[in-house]
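Quick start: read one record
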Amino acid sequence: MNNPSSGHPFPDGFLWGASSAAHQIEGNNVNSDWWHREHEADSTLPEPSGDACDSYHRWREDMDLLAELGFTDYRFSIEWARIEPAPGHFSKAEIAHYRRMVEGALDRGLRPMVTLHHFTVPRWFAERGGWTAEGAIDLFERYVRATAPVIGTGVRHVRTINEPNMIALAVAFRELGTEVAPIAGIPLLDRPTTDALIRAHHRARAAVKSISADIQVGWSIANQVYQALPGAEAVTAAYSHPREDVFIEAARGDDWIGVQSYTRTRIGADGPLPAPDGAERTLTGWEYYPQALGHALRHTAGIVGDVPLIVTENGIATDDDTRRVDYTTGALQEVSAALEDGLDVRGYLHWSALDNYEWGSYKPTFGLIAVDPDTFERTPRPSAAWLGGLARTRVLPRITS
């Protein structure tokens, strides 16, 4: 392997960006299934999303900051529950809102990457049975086709579904009556949901191509970076396939695939193991392990073949911004090494642009930009200026230590 700290420039056209998701930053997504879950009398979620970052109204400020910092790309999602709040009713106002966001990004020199589905669905869709209900794939395709005014021009990259393996995992958790991963590892994913999501992705990909053949379509997989301890290779492969690899295989006909990585999962003869004793942990409780991204890129490339790779999420929940810089430096060293070794990596989009609602809590702070929960004032952290500076130079400084 080549030296990951060589200081070689990243390729021309490389995507340097930050990522967000509608429900996590917009606020008051009242027609979604998640809003309903947050406000159920017996909800197990620590806190509701509420106003979030008020980015539904403040998206211009968010994009201004990203552009001023030096980023060239912004990944955001559009919210199905806003666009189709009731079955068959498509809001012209919301479609126009998201089109303004696309145009606003372009006006600021930011290339928009648009996600069509990031975990949340309309409440009515969930109540009729979700992804495995009769006609669910048709309904998702209908929604995708309705987004044509948003994505039809000026959008180069469209992501159909964010982390389908985590969506199938959420169904498995609900069937177990828990929202917390058991100590022995994550349960086997719900197979009907897995199959439905793969079909939904393929149908959505065709629908997007019918809107514009120039759009590059993909989806993003949550890479758990399953690392086999000696003698556990077969166990690891069997554990990984239904929880991750089957979704990567489904991307073999795509224009690109999104790689999303944060930490690793060690696998022994009896299954997943906890993080090593004394390992540094982030605010999410995950092991601090920036090298995970390199493993994720190579694992994905080994399965998907010659489909280009884009890092669509990578970051760290921390209240120490110097650790964010250190973590991201390590992750980008892995990207640089992968490029030097011939992997077709097209971009790096950091999670996340803003501190946001992390599916039950605001405590894990992933943001390059801090957000005051009362005034919504945005304050870029030093890591934001540092990463934006790399976006301008496209060169990761040589590490000499």
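The radius of gyration is 20 Å.
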